[in-house]
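User: We ran a pulldown and think these components assemble together. Before we commit to crystallization trials, I'd like a predicted model of the whole complex to look at. Sequences follow.
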Amino acid sequence: MIWNVRKGRAGRTKEVAWRASALLRPGSKALVLLIASAAMPAWAQNQAPAGMALIPAGVYRPLVRDATEPKEVPVKAFYLDRLPVTVGDYLQFVRANPRWQRSQVQRIFADESYLKDWSGDLEPGTNTATDAPVTYVSWFGAKDFARWKGKRLPSVAEWEHAASASSTRPDGENDPAFKHQVLQWYITPNSSLPGVGTRPANFWGVRDLHGLVWEWVLDFNSVMLTGDSRADSGGLERGLFCGAGSQSAKDAADYPAFMRFGFRTSLEANYCIHNLGFRCAKDL
Amino acid sequence: MISLTWIKAPWAVMCKRRGVITKESAAKKVKTNIVKIFGVVALTAGAHTLWGAQVASNFMDGTEIGGEENALLGKAPNVPPPITRKHPAKVIVNLEVKEITKRLADGVEYNFWTFGGDVPGSFIRIREGDLVEFHLNNNQNNKMPHNIDLHAVTGPGGGAAASFTAPGHSSQFSFTASTPGLYVYHCATAPVGMHVGNGMYGLILVEPKEGLPPVDHEYYVMQGEFYTGGKFGEPGLQSFDEDKAIDERPSYVVFNGAVGSLTGNNALTARVGDRIRLFLGNGGPNLSSSFHVIGTIFDTVYPEGGSAATRHVQTTAVPPGGAAIVEFTATVPGDYALVDHSLFRAFNKGAVGTITVSGPENKAVYSGKQSDNVYTGEPITNVPVVVSATPQNQVEVPNLALNLREQYARGRAVYSQTCFVCHQPSGLGVPGQIPPLAKSDVLMGDTAGVIRGVLQGRSGELTVNGKKYNGIMIPFGNLSDQQIADVLTFARNTWGNSDTNALTSAEVQAARKGAPATLATNPFE
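Assistant: Here's a predicted model for the assembly, 809 residues in total across the polymer chains.
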């Protein structure tokens, strides 16, 4: 069967179950769960570290690429945090790593906005709930947090692969209603952030990939080309402005994807931004 | 004339010490035209540079950059005053991008993306030859990165590449305003149509060295369309609808970012005899505007915002990403409607504004209505004819009670303003296209249905007196309950029709409760 070739070993069973159930009775969620729980081996469920979900292997198709890049990027199975890193999590990190406290951090690793909404080095402040996603953190900070946890940041391909699942299906990117919902979040301004985990989990059991904050990824600035894509006239910069933006895109109508890539392209590694947080990943 | 003696004046010395010639001080010396500056954000105070007599002598030749100042920004419909200095300067522009929720129409809100908090964005006025230091500031609460492409800039992306900015950051780039004209600026971040469709556009005027001819009023009007999930007027918070945008099916086409931005209390104003200049822009993102001011002829149009002037224009095309300057003179008092002459946009989607001109009447230019008589459709010739003592063209006298005659007369007035264009003065309609009202089984049939037809319009197949019609009647919910009762009473008692029961406004009101909201005013009355 095709999916046996494409998908990795771990987590394959859940997708197999989903496909099987779709054959029997499309859209029957109860049936999905029934078959999934019966068919998934105990080792796959038990191996995921606490707070992480197993994301099965798959294929990621980049939105924009140049002629030398592959149309499809294989993604190995990996573990992904079920929730974004919270203010409380990050507080533990800066306690254990004083060089990441607000007054200690070096500017090349985090700009002036680093932990801007905190009231002190170890005080998140009255406006910042401990269960809110931590934001105003740099890529360096996020990366070091992950290292401290024995994890790493997900790659663009991994993040996009995990985030393409809606709450009911692994290929949410093919569901116009899901895309519309994601786009609505991108459009809506927000100045305060609610706590993590209040929205429904997606098909893989991961929450808040959409609808809460943007998230750092490991290779945020090398999605299209290696190096600094902004300085490369053949890369993202040319592709993302005005009408030219659609020329090299796989799907010019995939506005949510455009917006994610646009956002990532605007970043430098020491930027700290109100609506930008992160979560961690881990190899199997 | 700017000269060195001018520097010696006490106020000039003060300005020199502060290092800047303010707009206000310059305006005292150079009398030009009267311009409304309400709403203009004056930013001159606080600018600092070092220039003195040496620089002052340089700018006499009109080419050297002299001095530094912060640009004046205009909040639509207002425009910063004309630039009075006779030399180019370094001009600093600070523009903040804000993603905000604001009114799109009564009861309707929209998530706008803006340059400066408003749609259209702040009006930037600079002079030919100015060196512009541009700062694009992306508010920290914004979700999106943004940039700016100014059509006045010569260089890749018009500044877009140099101004791509993450939320909570600020980008700087500089350009020389080499070519005079009126230019659109807009965000060019992918997906660009969405950034523009959410309101990210405005105008920048590069005023020619010699300035523009003086006028009495300058206003800033910019068209744009909005693609909302809900239909026109559907209440609540509306957001960008990707499918409608790609299909180019906007729910709203408006001037200055909202329905009613230029009507009612927000109408533009002028006095009889005033010369008015409109800086027109079209943000689009998709639709070209056929800009027209009902009841006036533009004296001068600078098409595309360029330097060539065209005289005596009725309607001027303003494409998305384009601009035009139009000038006209207010001669006769009254309200003048600004419209996109693609009329369904004006009638059904909000593309209407008003200029209210006050002052004395000029009956020689425009008489107003001089008479209103019954016209029966008999041919009129210029040849005098002898008529018999008994009039042949007997006016139809309806079989109505005396107390309803007044209602009948009012209804006739409504009919002659609103209905006769299609249904004809004869009530016979147009064969095969517009159904007749004369001896019409539909008109004389179900009263509630007839009222609904007027309120909501009709489309699709309709059989009248055994003949099939398949046209569209637009809704006339803009008429009052009483007007509809009157006009139907008139129609049902004319052209051989007879219905001794007059309609009441209560009947119309009852039918209206089930009808959807339509435009509150008819812009063509």
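Chain B touches chain A at residues 99-101, 111, 140-145, 147, 149, 157, 160-161, 164-169, 188-192, 194, 198, 239-240, 242, 246 (CB under 8 Å). That may be worth checking against your pulldown data before setting up trials.

User: Thanks, that helps.
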